[in-house]
Amino acid sequence: MSVYVALLHYPVYNRNGHVVCSAITNLDVHDIARAARTYGVSGFYVVTPLEEQRLLLDRLLRHWREGYGARSNPDRKAALELVTVVASLPEALALITGEVGTELELWGTAATATRPTLTYSEARDRLHHGRPTVILFGTGWGLCRDVLGLATYLLPPIRGATSYNHLSVRGAAAVILDRLLGQNG
Amino acid sequence: MSVYVALLHYPVYNRNGHVVCSAITNLDVHDIARAARTYGVSGFYVVTPLEEQRLLLDRLLRHWREGYGARSNPDRKAALELVTVVASLPEALALITGEVGTELELWGTAATATRPTLTYSEARDRLHHGRPTVILFGTGWGLCRDVLGLATYLLPPIRGATSYNHLSVRGAAAVILDRLLGQNG
């Protein structure tokens, strides 16, 4: 079983439903890397077309992977070693395909389902028996319809006891990885 | 069923195992409030003995609950309305007891279990049939032993596919609320 995570900063919606490029949030990268490491994810791709943002994030990652951060906090190093910064989703998919040497399956996530979804139980089974899978997360107000259209399956929106569904992408990613890969105690 | 969450900034451990007071992290408050709102939690208490930090957080909360933030982002308002800032855990418990009018049960969370824990399935059942419950989360390197000693039960540490257990407290809180109160799709 191999699972990858991609966090897209473009193309995503803003609160008005326009397609935008969102800024990288440092804590998204740290939190999702920590969750990815916890749940045995093989790689975490941070996607933004903005070169300056990629350079900045690469500099931050060097601090934690090679610099003082690596010595002061080896657990954070272990998490952030999973991160690769790329300009586009196709670039991420090409790198992952090169690594696994086989066709990938893409799964989309959204706060509102726009078409039928796998159940989490079906998704867990599929991870064990299916192809290497890339789970796509969107920042801002969520992944653009065109990107969701690339996904073979959507995962169900996270529902709690209420109709409120405004988890942070960091929180939603942790919950989704737990539902797919967590070991219940 | 009524569930409350308390996020303690004191007494918690630092990475060297010393008891410290950690600083409030703005995104902890936002993310845990959003998760609390999603999962139908009745109240979220942010606990710090540092008066300046409480005043600062109260000012930020006013922005989102009454100021420009409330108009520009009503969903965030709905989440942050759950937050109460207090100086100590006893103060939080007194306020909750006043609200529910009955004895409370405290549950502790930790990245490493120091004594037997409920399973998540037992915990779900207990929430439906038991007393109003306050789930305690610690910032920094986790809740001090004395605080965990106040809890009737501990919840199991979150386990993924690996032995790595360094989720952020924001991420752990989202996952734990999902395990206790989530509706699986």
Molecular structure report:
2 copies of one chain form a homodimer. By secondary structure, the first copy, chain A, is an alpha/beta fold. Helix content of chain A is 44%, strand content 17%. Chain A has 8 helices and 8 strands. Chain A has a 6-stranded parallel beta sheet with strand order 5-4-1-7-6-8, sandwiched between helices. In chain A, strands 2-3 form a two-stranded antiparallel ribbon. In chain A, α1 (26-38) crosses α4. The longest helix of chain A is centred in the N-terminal third of the chain and has 15 residues, at 51-65. The two termini of chain A are 22 Å apart. The interface between A and B is large, with 45 and 45 residues.
Quaternary state, please? homodimer
Which percent range describes the beta-strand content of chain A? Answer: 15-25%
Q: Rough shape of chain A?
A: globular
**Biggest contact:** A-B, 45 and 45 residues
Task: Please outline the helices and strands.
2 copies of one chain form a homodimer.
Chain A: E1 3-8, E2 12-13, E3 19-20, H1 26-38, E4 43-47, H2 51-65, H3 68-72, H4 74-80, E5 83-86, H5 89-100, E6 105-108, H6 120-129, E7 133-138, H7 145-150, E8 153-154, H8 169-181
Helix pairs in contact in A: 1-4, 1-8
